[in-house]
Amino acid sequence: MTITITAFERSPDGGKGLARDTRVRWALEEVGQPYEVRLVSFRAMKEPAHLRLHPFGQIPTYEEGDLVLFETGAIVFHLAQRHPGLLPDDANARARAITWMFAALNTVEPPILDLSNTRIAERDKPWSQERLPLVEDRIRQRLVQLSARLGDAGWLDGAFSAGDLMMVSVLLRLRPAGMLDEFPDLAAYVARGEARPAYQRAFAAQWAVNTAKSQAG
Prior knowledge:
With 217 residues, the chain is α+β, with helices and mostly antiparallel strands. The protein has eight helices and four strands; from the N terminus they run βαβαββαααααα. It has two domains: 3-85 and 198-216, Glutaredoxin (3-Layer(aba) Sandwich); 91-196, Glutathione S-transferase Yfyf (Class Pi), Chain A, domain 2 (Up-down Bundle), CATH 1.20.1050.
C-alpha cells in the first residue's frame, strides 16, 4: 500500500527542516519506506477534506490504506514499530527509546515552542520582552539536564533510535535563536543527526518543494 503524507505547500521556514513533516520524512527514509507527498495550502488545511484527516487542521498526516494518523510522535512510533531500524530489539532498550520520544515531545519541545510564540506571535505584546528571558531560562534548564545525560555519548541510549530522531528534530527548532551554540555537545549531537543519509534525503525533499515554489513566485 502506498504511504501518503501531507506537507505545507509553502513551508513557513522556507524548507529549512523545521516543519514537522521533516520528522516523518526522516523516519520513512530511515526505515526505507517509499512515500508520496500531498501538498496543502494554509487554506486547505482548514477545509473539511483535510480536517477529516487531522481534526486540528495541521500537518503532517499519514495515510496507508485504511489507516489515517496525525501527530508526528504517533506517526514515527507507528513506523518504528512496523519496520526495523528505529527501535532496538531488546525489550528494555526499546522501552527506553520510546521514553526518549516522549521526553522530546513532552518535556523538551514545549518551552521551545513557547520561545517561538514569544519571539514571533507575541512580539507586539507589551509584556513580550519581559517574558522572553523567563522562557529562555526554562529552555536552558532543559538543555543543561539533557547535556548532562548525553555526556560524551553519540546518542541518547546506545545506537541511534526513534528517540534520537525526535530529540534532534526538536532541538533543531532552537537554531534560529542561537541557543544551541551555548551547548557544544548538543550542537554536535544535532549535527550527527543531520549528517545521517536518511535525514539528508528528507531535508533535500522538503527543500526541493520550497525552492520550486519560491522560483515559481
